[in-house]
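1st attempt posting a full record on here, be nice pls
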Amino acid sequence: MSTSSARVRVTVTVAPDLLRRLSRIPPAGRPRSRSQVVEEALRLWLREHARRDLESQIEEYYHSLSASDQEEDREWAALAAESAAKAWRR
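the predicted structure (as tokens):
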């Protein structure tokens, strides 16, 4: 995870209850600054967005398969599961 030392100043407005909850966290357990909290929240949101996007692409791919391709995929999955089960029994 790359963090540049150069920062861009932005203004963020948050609900008062969120700020109160952040302030209740003991200093040892919270980031040094609110900027760090916002950066981490943005990183988590972007990671989740990328995960959802990938899941959507995978779903789209599987929906685009023909019936015979879907059957072949099920056969490969069954074979892989059987092979994994045998490997774990050793």
